[in-house]
C-alpha cells in the first residue's frame, strides 16, 4: 500500500534552510499495534530493522493506493449452468484446468457426469 500524507512541517517550511515537501509518500503493509487506535492511526511496515513500523495520523492522509496486481495473476474461473436428470440446475466451475460441480454426486465422489460431459 502506498499512502500520501500531508507533511506536518510544511506550514513551518520558512523556518528550514532546505525544501520541505507539502506531501510525503510512504509504502508498506498495513498492520496493527495493541496500544494504537486503528481508527485514528494507520500503522505501516517499513522494512527497516531499526524502524519497523510507521504510525500515521489518518487525518493527514490525502491519498491511498493499494497494489492489486497480484490479483490479476489469478485464473478467472469459467462457469456453466447445467440441468440434472431430475430438472435441478447445477453450476460447473473450471478453475486452473479442473472442473467442479455443485451436484450431490460431485460432492460425494469428486466427479460426476456433468464434469465428464464438460
Structure description:
With 118 residues, this protein is mainly beta. It has helices spanning 69-72, 104-109, 113-117, and strands at 2-6, 23-27, 30-31, 41-45, 53-57, 61-65, 78-83, 89-95, 98-101. β7 (78-83) and β8 form a beta hairpin. The strands form three sheets. A three-stranded antiparallel sheet has the order 2-1-6, with no helix packed on it. The relative contact order is 0.14. The two termini are 41 Å apart. The protein is built from three helices and nine strands. It folds into two domains: 2-69, no CATH class; 75-117, no CATH class. Helix content is 13%, strand content 37%.
Please outline what is shown here.
It is built from three helices and nine strands. It is mainly beta and 118 residues long.
Amino acid at each position: 500500500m502506498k499512502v500520501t500524507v500531508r507533511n506536518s512541517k510544511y506550514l513551518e517550511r520558512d523556518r528550514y534552510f532546505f525544501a520541505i515537501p507539502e506531501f510525503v509518500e510512504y509504502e508498506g503493509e498495513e498492520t496493527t499495534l495493541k496500544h494504537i487506535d486503528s481508527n485514528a492511526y494507520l500503522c505501516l511496515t517499513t522494512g527497516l530493522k531499526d524502524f519497523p513500523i510507521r504510525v500515521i495520523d489518518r487525518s493527514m492522509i490525502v491519498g491511498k493506493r493499494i497494489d492489486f496486481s497480484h490479483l490479476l495473476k489469478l485464473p478467472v474461473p469459467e462457469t456453466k449452468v447445467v440441468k440434472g436428470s431430475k430438472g435441478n440446475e447445477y453450476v460447473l466451475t473450471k478453475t486452473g484446468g479442473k472442473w467442479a460441480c455443485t451436484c450431490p454426486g460431485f460432492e460425494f465422489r469428486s466427479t460426476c457426469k456433468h464434469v465428464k460431459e464438460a
